[in-house]
Amino acid sequence: MLKNPALGAEAKARERLRILAVNLRRAAKDPGDPDSIHDLRVSIRRFKQVLRVFDGLFSHSPRMRRGLREIMDLCGAARNCDIASDVLDAAGVPLDHGLRKRLKQYRAHAGRDLAKLLDKWDVHAHMRRWQGWLATEAGEALPARSLPSLAREFFAAGRAAAKASATVRQMHAFRLSVKRFRYTLEILGGKAPSGIRMDAVRGLQDRLGAINDCVTTAELIDEIHRGAAGKREIKAALNRLIAHRSADFRIYWRTHFNRRTK
Questions:
Q1: Cα(148)–Cα(1) distance, rounded to whole angstroms?
Q2: From 173's CA, which of 81, 167, 216, 245 has a CA 20 to 30 Å away?
Q3: In this predicted model, what pLDDT tens digit does every residue of 80-100 receive, in sequence order?
Q4: At what angle do helices 168-188 and 34-53 cross, to 10 degrees?
Q5: Are residues 87 and 217 in contact, defined by beta-carbon separation less than 8 angstroms?
C-alpha cells in the first residue's frame, strides 16, 4: 500500500498522464497503426482507473474521464476492425474480396475520425491543463475502494461468469471487473490477496478478451456485411468460436480460482 496515499496518488496519476500524452501523440501521428491504437486504449484505461481509485482527490476528475470517452469510442471502432480478420480466421471464415474491402474502408474511416478529433482536441493544451488538475491537497487520502472489497467483487462476478449458463454480457461484466482489480492493484502497489496470482489474473483477462473480440466482430459484421445469408454463416461460425473460448475460460477459472469460490 502507498505510504503517503495523497502524494503517491499524485505521482502515479502524473506518471500515467505522461504515458497517455505520449500515446495520444503517437495515435494522432499514425491513426492507422494497430499498436498505437492498442497502447492508447490501455493508457486511457489506466489513467482513468487512478482517477477512480482516488475519487474526489483530484479537481475535475469526472471532467477528465468524460473528455477521454469519445477518444476511447473511436479507438474501439478502429481496434474492432484491426482484430476482425484474426477473429474471422480463427472462426474458419474466409474473407472474400467484398468483406475485406469494407473492413478496410471502415477502418480508414475510423482512423480519419480519430485523427480529426485529436487535432481538434489539442493534446498539448489538454495535457498542460490536466497537469494542473492533478495537484493534490496536503494530508491523507484513502482509496475509494479497498482491495478486499474489489477482491470480493472479482470472485462474485467470476462465479457468475463461469457458470455454463452465463451470458456473454455476464462474461463482459467480469472482464471489466478483472481489469479494475488488476489496474487498482498496480496503482496501490500492494500484494494480491492471498491465493490470487497476478499472472493468472492476466491469463483470465486474455481469455475474456478473446471472447469479447468475437462479440465485437459479430457486431461489426452486422453493420458492414451486405448479404443476409453470408452474414448468418459468419455469425454461426463466430458463435461456435465463442462457445469454444467460453469453455476454455471456464476450465481456466476452475483450474486457477475455483478453490477460492467454495
A1: 13
A2: 81
A3: 999 999 999 999 998 888 888
A4: 70
A5: yes
Cβ–Cβ < 8 Å for 224, 179: no
- In the block, residue with C-alpha cell 497502447: 39
Return d(Cα 165, Cα 167) in angstroms, integer.
7
Burial class (CB in 10 A: 0-12, 13-18, 19+), 131: middle
Segment 4-62, tens digit of pLDDT: 455 578 888 999 999 999 999 999 999 999 999 999 999 999 999 989 888 778 888 88
> The C-alpha cell of 167 is what?
451470458
Are 83 and 213 contacting, i.e. CB atoms less than 8 angstroms apart?
Answer: yes
Q: Distances from the Cα of 81 to the Cαs of 86, 105, 140, 219, in angstroms?
A: 10, 10, 45, 11
Euclidean distance between CA atoms 33 and 77, whole angstroms? 13
